[in-house]
Amino acid sequence: MTRVKICGTTTVADGMLAAEAGADAIGLIFAPVSRRQVDVQTARQISLAVGPAVGRVGVFLDQPLDEVLRLAAAARVSAVQIHGRVSSLYLETLACYHPVLRVLTPAELAGAGAPPIGHTLMLDAPTPGQGVPLDWEALRPGFLPGSWLAGGLGPENVKQAIQVLQPAGVDAVSRLEMAPGHKDPARVRAFIQAVKMASWSATNESYPQ
Ligand SMILES: O=C(O)c1ccccc1NCC(=O)[C@H](O)[C@H](O)COP(=O)(O)O
């Protein structure tokens, strides 16, 4: 089954909405450049509210390692998502503390090998959180099994993305909002439902009859 992460959660109410709609994970963005940045106290409240079955992913962009470790611990996240230019040592050190969702752009994927244990790859647009879809067909030859997909996904196009790439998980934010940082409940529910339906179809269609 394709996992589903609802990113850019800034309130307990929106965290609960995603959890009740069946999300596997929520994203808590700590990148200061983001219009969806959440403060660490609120992030911690959200983490504790969504229950044990929902992953809480701290999202970071070009932030120092000590800042990532401090915020991740304080917010009680269960994984970290790392965008931007960071070293292998940075990622290896982080993976000693948290599962790492390493975000690559399509251009960066070209030179990437299989990720080390503790790391999962996610493909996303060069500028995250802008609602711009990737070219899924062009990605297909190099898309590594087990990778996640983000970039411009919403209820209307996620089925096609899953059919083309069969990602292990999908992640979205812009197309699920009424305004940056504020979820549209109907679109969050529709997105999660669409992922589950598409993933169920992909799994069952591949079974021999
Ligand atoms: O969404 C942001 O504002 C953001 C800013 C800086 C770093 C990461 C950010 N988002 C990370 C995500 O996981 C988004 O869900 C992902 O980029 C997809 O976004 P969208 O294309 O808007 O669905």
Automatic annotation (TrEMBL):
The UniProt record lists the keyword Amino-acid biosynthesis: yes
Pathway annotation from the record: Amino-acid biosynthesis; L-tryptophan biosynthesis; L-tryptophan from chorismate: step 3/5
Catalytic activity: N-(5-phospho-beta-D-ribosyl)anthranilate = 1-(2-carboxyphenylamino)-1-deoxy-D-ribulose 5-phosphate
Protein name, per record: N-(5'-phosphoribosyl)anthranilate isomerase
Family the UniProt entry places it in: Belongs to the TrpF family.
Keywords, ordered alphabetically: Amino-acid biosynthesis, Aromatic amino acid biosynthesis, Isomerase, Tryptophan biosynthesis
Ranges where the N-(5'phosphoribosyl) anthranilate isomerase (PRAI) domain occurs: 4-194
CDD domains associated with the record: PRAI
Gene3D superfamilies listed in its UniProt record: Aldolase class I
Any one GO molecular function term: isomerase activity
InterPro entries named among the record's database cross-references: Aldolase_TIM (IPR013785), PRAI_dom (IPR001240), RibuloseP-bd_barrel (IPR011060), TrpF_fam (IPR044643)
Protein biosynthesis recorded as keyword: no
Enzyme class: isomerase
